[in-house]
Structure formats: structure tokens, C-alpha cells
């Protein structure tokens, strides 16, 4: 058709002129490159206008989709240059803030703000065009990966970064600042793309994930060291005498030595480390948002409760006075964690387990099987506690396998409830064999209870995990 030939000639002429403008005139090249969003918008408006003005019923359109694509392709050189300039501008500012040559210094808040402002400007320059916005976001994604790479290079490692006994070291303070900067970048970029189509989040997801990962890496080793220290305090529960009898033991209102040590450590961690990482943690929690640091603190608080319940359930023997002492220790723990780590009411299952375990230890063995408290406790905790009510020849898995409490705790971390039950079941079988060999006619009341609870609770736990 004549219109096709005219259009082909027009496109070729336009493409030639654009190519010439790009190569022959640096002035025109700069104008069209920097103003590419406007150039592209003008092109779209022109093509839309032609389509609209030639839209006659029963007549083929004057310009096809292929024709439109050819015209857009004619200015693609400027698009590539525009995106290259965008990447160059952002990379330059990142390189100035995170120079390769300077491993020791962490950028200031102002420098991070400059990067974020520049990124926001790049997004705002193209936000009226969805296609161009996605292309710019791909360049921003490259820059975020560059930031993650440079930031990872700045992380301090080694003993100074992991120590938890003294004041925060220079290495730790540096890691704290790095973590907060990366958290700020992650939060701000996420908020910038909130109003954009979901595909925008998909484009930036890998690079934002990299930023988040490096932020976590900067403080994860410290949090692990804090958890290890708190577990070492909790392990001392096994050095405490919970089998003492008499009124003196029952009336002793002092916290157990291990609990005092645990409280001191938690308070020290709060003052030296968490206060620097969570300057506005209360506000963050109230606002319903969770930063990297609050997530790690919440995880640590949950872990402390889980470890305490685990080791408390392994205490054996446990007298009535010992139960009172343990209940006081649980109250002290709840207070220490809630005031210095994380609101315990927001910890979910670990907190419910702590609240359930306290009254459970005072139940008669005959009442325990039908207690609703069992619903809030892991089966292994209930079964481990029942050993404290059984005879000496009913050995726990820990005793049977000649493990330390720490070794057994590490094993429990790596096993599911079904595997733990298998270990417990083996001890029950051993006990039953001993009773039969002796010719005894009765088992301890905990034996049938443990068999019944172990089977039913493990089945329930397995079903809930599917």
C-alpha cells in the first residue's frame, strides 16, 4: 500500500537523522540523551495522535503497531545512552561514598541520604512512563548490588566483632552503623516503589534482598554470640539444686544464681549493644514495621525462652520446693526478657509455652494427661519433664546416651519431635525390660502416661507440620 511505502521511507529517514544526531553532534546528543524521557513522551504523543486522527471506520489504520515500534526503535540509541548516564550518575555517587580504597570508614548518614535522594530523583524523572520506569529500576538494581558488595567489604569480623563480655568495641560500633545504613536504604527504596506496579518490586527484589542480607551479616555473628552466652547461663540451671526439701528452700525468695547471671547478661546486652541498634525500637514495633534489628532481637528473645523451657524440663530431680524456685525463676526470666529484649506477649508460641510450663510443673501426675496446658507445649518438653517424676532407673535419653546437657540440647535443635520421641521411646523400652527382669508387677505411673502422651502428641505434632 502507498501508506506503507510512505511510512517506511519516513521511518528510515527519521532513523538516519537520529543516528546522525547521536554521532555527529555532541550538543544534540546530550540534549536528547538527558531529555530522553521527554523525547520518548513526545514520540508517543505524536504516534497516538496519528492513530487517533486517522481512525476511520472501515479503513486500515495509517500506522500499525509494527510502525510504532520502528519509530521508537529509531530513538533507542538515546534510550541506551540515557540509561547508561543514569547508571553512571548513581555509580559515581556510590563509588564516592563507598570507595574501594577505604576499607575502614563507614559512610555518614548524610552520604547515605545523598545516594537515596539521587535514586529518588532518577525514579521521579521517569515515573510518568511505566516502561521507562522499569528500565531505570533495572539500573538502580545494579547500583544496589554495588552498594551491597561495597558494604560487605566493610564488615568487621573476628573476635572484636563477636565479643559480648565488655563494652561495644570500635569494630562492633562500625558494624552497627553499617547495618543501620543498609536498613535505611532497604526501607527507603521499598517505600519509593510502593505506588508502582508490582513488577517494580519484582525487578528490585534480588538487589533489595542482597542489601538486607549484608545488613544481617554485619550483626548476625554478634547476635549468635549473645545467644550462646545466654544459653551458657541457662545451662547452669543444672548446677542448681532443685531437689532440696523443707520450708527454708520453699521460703527462699532470691533468684537462683544462674538466673541472676542471665539477667545481668541480658541487661548488659541491652545497654551495650541493643540500645545502639534499636534507638527507636518501640516506635518501630508500634508502627507495625519490623527492622532487621528488631527481627533479630525478637528471634533472640524467643530463643532464650525456648532454651529455658527445654533445660527446665530436663531438671531432675525436682522437689516441691524446687518447683517453687523454678516458678520464681520463670517469672524473673519473663520480666528480664520483656523489659530488655522484646515484649514477651508478642513472642507467640515460646511465650505461651513458658506460661503453660509454670503451672504444669505443679500438677499431679494423674492430672497431667488431661490438662489443656499440654496444647501450648512441645511434646518433648512435657515428656522430658515427666522423667523428673519417674524412678531413677527410668533413664532420660541424655543419661542413656551419656551426653552433656549442651550436647543433648544441640541434638534437640537438629531433630523433629518424631525423632526426639524415638529417643524417649527407647528409654521407656529399656525401663520396661528392667521391670520385667526384676519381676515387678507394676510400672511407675509415669510410664504408661509417657507412652500414651508420646504417641498421641507426636502424631498431633507431625500432622500440624504437614
From TrEMBL:
Residues 4-46 form the Conserved oligomeric Golgi complex subunit 5 helical domain. Coiled coil: none annotated. GO terms for biological process: intra-Golgi vesicle-mediated transport. GO terms for cellular component: Golgi transport complex. It comes from the Eukaryota. InterPro entries: Cog5 (IPR019465), COG5_helical (IPR048485). This is Conserved oligomeric Golgi complex subunit 5 helical domain-containing protein. It comes from Gossypium harknessii. The lineage of its organism: Eukaryota, Viridiplantae, Streptophyta, Embryophyta, Tracheophyta.
